[in-house]
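queue> pop job 88
queue> type: inverse folding (structure -> sequence)
queue> payload:
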């Protein structure tokens, strides 16, 4: 592979970890403080107090020293018991992964699959819950954005389905890919448990997980027999011993990074952050639509309203996606996400977190250049289409 153009800052456009702001990295680079008193403790308590507002809840927030999988396990072990049944509403890959983790802990899982290339169908969830007359199902597990398919599920509609069935199941939502990118209203939408991770929309390196729990989840916690010493919410809520918040030494450097990232989100405003993601995602979709050609590129998700603003999965038809990614990465310094089962001849563009037009237009322009290098059939210029979307948004902002 000719690497002649691959010098300069590499753009990593995979769907997590996302590009971490220099401000966050700089904030993390400091010596260890006293962890029992003073600045770090105040910072930690401040962050814990502010986290509910990020998920739009009045509930409790917990920080795990882990990736998203650890946060998944915290959510499961604190609310469920051996032999409980849960309904996994799958729309790509990640709800099932969460369910598989619950199964290892002794929970029975039942999977309801979204139709191909679509979001979870709330009517299917409602029908399954109506059939569960004995209320055996303890929870519904679903992701807001599935990072494999790039679908966005309608969480409010899924809550509506649970309520329409008159079912008491907890609604547990994985927002690992979407928090800080997509509108998410935990309390308004009736979500009982929300899970997130640090390294996607929240702009902090991998290593922190987040779990939010409302009062219904805390009531389930009182009965749960999967509780373990390390993940246990009750132990972590001890007001008197800060050390127990993290079941041990706090993740000091990550907390400084998180403080900085939360300041950045607050400075921009959560609504403005969601709006920026919407515009940039619209630009990606406009690019793919412009490139689209018979046997060529196309968006995986067919329904426009179900396309995520955090990540886009692009099918490549007869074009070799592995070769396209290789030209981008080795020839031009752009790292794209790989396609995941069942969309293997595909690539994914992460557009989450710390992202602006030059980063995104550079990404899309480089994909277009790689397509040209391959002689791949495209309908038209995606880079131009994306620039027009961004231009229209800038135009209404400066007018
Ligand atoms: C990234 C991701 C995960 C896994 O997170 P890890 O930090 O790798 O454990 C789970 N669910 C979704 C939707 C994700 O995007």
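queue> result:
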């Amino acid at each position: 592979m000719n690497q002649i153009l691959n010098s300069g800052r590499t753009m990593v456009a995979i769907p997590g970890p996302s590009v971490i702001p220099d401000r966050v990295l700089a904030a993390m680079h400091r010596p260890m403080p006293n962890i029992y008193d003073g600045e770090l403790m105040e910072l930690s308590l401040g962050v814990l107090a502010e986290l509910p507002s990020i998920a739009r809840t009045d509930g409790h927030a917990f920080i795990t020293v882990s990736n998203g999988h650890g946060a998944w396990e915290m959510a499961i072990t604190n609310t469920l018991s051996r032999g409980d049944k849960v309904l996994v509403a799958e729309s790509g890959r990640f709800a099932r992964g969460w369910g598989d983790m619950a199964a290892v802990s002794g929970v029975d899982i039942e999977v309801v699959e979204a139709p191909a290339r679509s979001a979870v169908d709330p009517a299917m969830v409602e029908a399954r819950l109506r059939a569960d007359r004995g209320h055996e199902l303890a929870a519904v597990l679903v992701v807001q954005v599935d990072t494999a398919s790039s679908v966005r599920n309608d969480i409010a509609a899924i809550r509506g389905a649970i309520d329409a069935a008159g079912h008491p199941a907890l609604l547990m939502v994985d927002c690992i890919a979407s928090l800080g990118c997509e509108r998410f209203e935990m309390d308004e939408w009736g979500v009982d448990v929300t899970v997130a991770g640090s390294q996607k929309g929240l702009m902090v390196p991998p290593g922190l997980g987040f779990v939010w729990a409302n009062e219904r989840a805390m009531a389930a916690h009182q009965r749960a027999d999967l509780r373990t010493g390390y993940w246990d919410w009750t132990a972590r809520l001890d007001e008197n011993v800060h050390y127990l918040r993290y079941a041990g030494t706090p993740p000091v450097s990550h907390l400084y990074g998180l403080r900085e990232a939360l300041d950045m989100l607050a400075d921009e405003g959560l609504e403005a952050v969601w709006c920026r993601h919407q515009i940039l995602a619209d630009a990606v979709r406009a690019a793919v639509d412009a490139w689209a050609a018979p046997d060529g590129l196309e968006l995986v998700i067919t329904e426009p309203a179900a396309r995520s603003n955090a990540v886009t999965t692009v099918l490549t038809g007869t074009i070799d996606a592995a070769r396209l990614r290789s030209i981008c990465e080795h020839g031009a310094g752009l790292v794209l996400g790989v396609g995941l089962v069942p969309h293997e001849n595909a690539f994914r563009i992460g557009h989450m977190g710390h992202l602006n037009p030059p980063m995104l237009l550079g990404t899309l322009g480089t994909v277009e250049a790689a397509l040209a290098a391959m002689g791949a059939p495209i309908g038209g210029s995606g880079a131009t289409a994306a620039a027009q979307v961004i231009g229209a948004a800038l135009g209404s902002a400066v007018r």
